[in-house]
Write a structure and sequence with these properties.
CATH superfamily: Alpha/Beta hydrolase fold, catalytic domain
CATH architecture: 3-Layer(aba) Sandwich
Shape: globular
Radius of gyration: 18 Å
Strand content: 15-25%
Largest sheet: 7 strands, mixed
Structural class: alpha/beta
CATH class: Alpha Beta
Number of helices: 11
CATH topology: Rossmann fold
Number of domains: 1
Helix content: 25-40%
Distance between the termini: 43 Å
Length: 294
């Protein structure tokens, strides 16, 4: 990934196709008395979870996928977001009428950084969350196509510079599927920090360094709490993940206190496993896991 420096961004809401309701995400009412909360990844969009959401709703689940805080807004807003604000986005779902009035089992699944947020959700609501799927968990961006500047992040972490640097996403954009790569290439290739269209639909072509610093803060908060987590957990990770190596999956698996845990490795996907080549297999394994807990 290439590093981009930008002076303070002029926040012009008119140049962004942000959703009318900035809290909008995906919601499908179910019929079988089970609920699934889905959490998309950092700089991503609920559309990353669309296949999974429809798969479970077709099987009777009520499915909720909130839009994470400030996602869909200009980068000058997004890059000021803290991990606690991101977590509040999904905690709000647990305190929503849809879940408070729900009487059946509730499961949760998160993609990439969303996986770490769902683990915190399980810790805070152990009586409501019956099981969690961590999909391509990203605690450390250490995959073969991840940001590679070892010196920039430590410097930015302790200074105001973190608000001015961005990593430009480059192919394969988390997809092994070539058609999906091509779709994002068309959207991302000519994008500039000051000119990003439809981030609510396609996600952002850039990672703000400030958010990678927030990820580091989140991991620091999470690491010591992993042994306290006793809820069932499933981890699904691609062997060839371009953004987060298998080290991330094993980090969670080896430290979490769950007596019921499983690790599934994929052969034909990259990072965005909820939309890539094995998305159907991923959904099937998730459903098997939840069915065993119901």
């Amino acid at each position: 990934m290439s590093v981009v420096f930008s002076l303070p961004i002029n926040i012009d809401q008119k140049s962004f196709a942000a959703p009318q309701d900035e809290r909008s995400g995906l919601y499908y009412a179910g019929t079988k008395g089970k609920a699934l909360i889905l959490v998309h990844g950092l700089t991503g969009t609920p559309n990353e979870m669309l296949f999974t959401a429809k798969y479970f709703n077709e099987r009777g689940y009520t499915v909720i996928c909130p839009r994470l805080a400030n996602h869909g807004k200009p980068l000058g807003v997004l890059n000021k977001t803290t991990w606690r604000e991101l977590y509040a986005s999904i905690k709000d779902v647990m305190q929503s009428k849809e879940i408070l009035d729900f009487r059946g089992p509730v499961f949760a699944a998160g993609l990439s950084m969303g996986a770490t947020l769902t683990l915190l959700l399980g810790l805070e609501f152990p009586d409501r969350i019956k099981g969690i799927s961590c999909l391509s968990p990203a605690l450390f961006y250490d995959g073969w196509n991840a940001p590679s500047s070892r010196h920039l992040l430590p410097i930015a972490y302790v200074s105001f510079l973190k608000y001015y640097f961005y990593y430009k996403k480059e192919p394969p954009y988390g997809f092994k599927n070539e058609a999906l790569q091509a779709r994002l290439r068309k959207q991302y290739e000519k994008a500039r920090v000051t000119d990003i269209m439809a981030p609510d639909k396609y996600g952002y072509p850039f990672y703000p360094v400030s958010l990678l610093c927030e990820l580091k803060n989140l991991v620091g908060h999470l690491e010591g709490k992993l042994p306290e987590m006793r809820f069932p957990v499933q981890i699904i990770h691609a062997k060839q993940d371009d953004m987060a190596s298998i080290r991330n999956a094993r980090f969670i698996y080896d430290r979490i206190g769950s007596p019921r845990k499983e690790l599934i490795l994929l052969e034909n996907s990259y990072h965005l496993i909820t939309a890539d080549n094995e998305r159907g297999f991923v959904a099937e394994k998730m459903e098997e896991f939840y069915r065993s807990l119901s």
